[in-house]
Predict the structure.
Amino acid sequence: MGYHIAFSKPFQLKPRVCQISLTPYLHFCTSIPAPGEDPISPNPETTASPGPKPDPKTETPNVAQEKQYQRIPRAKQQHRSPEKLEDIICRMMANRDWTTRLQNSIRALVPEFDHSLVYNVLHGARKPDHALQFFRWVERAGLIQHDRETHMKIIQILGRYSMLNHARCIVLEDMPKKGFELDEDMFVLLIDSYGKAGIVQESVKMFSKMKELGVERSVKSYNALFKVIVRKGRYMMAKRFFNKMLDEGIGPSRHTYNVLIWGFFLSMRLRTAVRFYEDMKVRGISPDVVTYNTMINGYYRHKRMEEAEKLFAEMKAKDIAPTVISYTTMIKGYFAVDRINDGLRLLEEMKSVGIKPNNVTYTTLLPDLCDAGKMTEAKDILKEMVRRRIAPKDNSIFLKLLNSQCKAGDLKAAVDVLDGMIKLSIPSEAGHYGVLIENFCKAEEYDQAVKFVDKLIENDIILRPQSTLEMESGAYNPVIQYLCSHGQTGKAEILFRQLLKRGVEDPLAFNNLICGHAKEGTPDSAFEILKIMGRKGIPRDADAYRLLIESYLRKGEPADAKTALDSMIEDGHLPDSSVFRSVMESLYEDGRVQTASRVMKSMVEKGVKENMDLVAKILEALLMRGHEEEALGRIDLLMSSQCNVNFDSLLSILSEKGKTIAALKLLDFGLQRDCDIDFKSYDKVLDALLAAGKTLNAYSILCKIMEKGGVTSWRSYEDLIKSLNLEGNTKQADILSRMIKGDDKSHENKKGKKKASVAA
């Protein structure tokens, strides 16, 4: 297959990994650390402490097994590749599904299986289900008969991944069938595995099963059970099993007491923990550093620092050297009761005896120093951490440091916090930068704030998928507003579009971007922002619309300005008269009279009655261009809105410029609505119609004028009658002649004009 294989010697076994699980000391993920464990973290590198070595009789199965079952290197052969056979098999299993084809590949690769190879493959398997399938396959295929060690290995793996039913079946069913004698170590593994999975009752059942199957129980199995029970707060059950252990004649070990004391403190049973501590000494079992650390931690959590101080002094008097855990717990206790100076004093003592603070110590110190306002000390601690390249266990400390330094007014120290994060290889997030940006903006040091914005954009910090600390509105809104008002709207938009991808939909930021683009003469970009806001249902600001419209008008794009005006009205904003006038005037001057007319219509409908001079120009242009119906509709709207319309001026202009049909329709419209029009306007329209040879139109409108009681001094009656006769319209001529004679008799004394205004 192209691999260079190094074969192993049979029956020479050693797993090449660190020990798994059950150790003499506890490592639980709980609020109170297990004995021998850091009061904050179960990091084994920080929890090592001096004291008596574990009793081999009570040593957990993993430790004893690893010592007995040592794997020696496989026989080295002169090959180009040093890759071991078990490594090749593990890689094949990791990259392929467990199929017959994979089984055949492994079988072809291995000329002969031995226990060392099987053990190492189980240990190196990356998927627990593949490990189990491999374990069963090699035996069913007759390639090997498993021994105790390979059984123990698969039980460890299954327990670690909570595949507990399989582990249970192997111990209680498969191994007895194969003739293996069950022992305590196997049950300790099951008890511990069920406990880590949180299934306390199953752990208890496994413990009871030992007696049923005749497996002798010792303090080792009791200790495993105690860890499971107290981890879940079952302190009463722990006491019952402790008494049962004594009844069976099994004496507790130091580790037993350490576990129980830790568990009682976990359940906030201070008196019970102290009673067991005293019972431990009565039985002649000397407390070790783990015991003292557990007691000190328990007292600190009950804010009983006087008792903790006595124990701390007692352990030193007994020549039990305090560990970093001891000092860290005491410091945290002092901080918890606001004895900050005592905590700092103990920190100096710790350093003076050669014990260096670890990451847990720093994690303890920094938040409490911030809360106490000891920012100088916090700054010094951070410098020490950076110098020693030690990162705290909780990265949220840095956010607290940033906020605290900014609150204290020391922005330089806040910047140093961010630099420290970078030097310690701690991922900086948008929220960290946001704190600095916000506070630099508050201090009006906008150049510094913009520098941090540049870093955010350049490094795509906002868009990092693993980021959990978002930038707050108090940070991005001030800097976006500053950028938009100082000609850097493009940069502001890049920043906000990244925020938008993170779900930020801030109306203030949107409106600032619109205003910025409008001021910089890029209204299309501003309008695009408006569209985004519309799609997301975000309220749009009237001032932003106004600036956008003005920007379009400055660029000479009145049609786009009108579109923006329509959007503004649709959003429920009422533009002021100046906005309407600007758009109408720009459209009018651009020759878009009908579009200007529609803007005028919107203006009147919204109750805006200023700028009537421009309205008259638009009406005149509509009539001159032959859009009579549209013009008459606008006039009707104006009249219903109590706005003045100067009919005489419009009729005069239309007559003088030969727009007789438009003049005729306008005069007819006025007569139908009983608008008072100057008789001179009648004369001008009639003259224009007669001059254009439109005698019937002149006859028709003259009849309507006379029916409405209008009086005219028109001197061209005879010319109209003559024209009607010449054109063969004798009937109309005769009617007009009789009407004129009758009118002269009834109105011979009435002169002047009739003019009534349409009330404004």
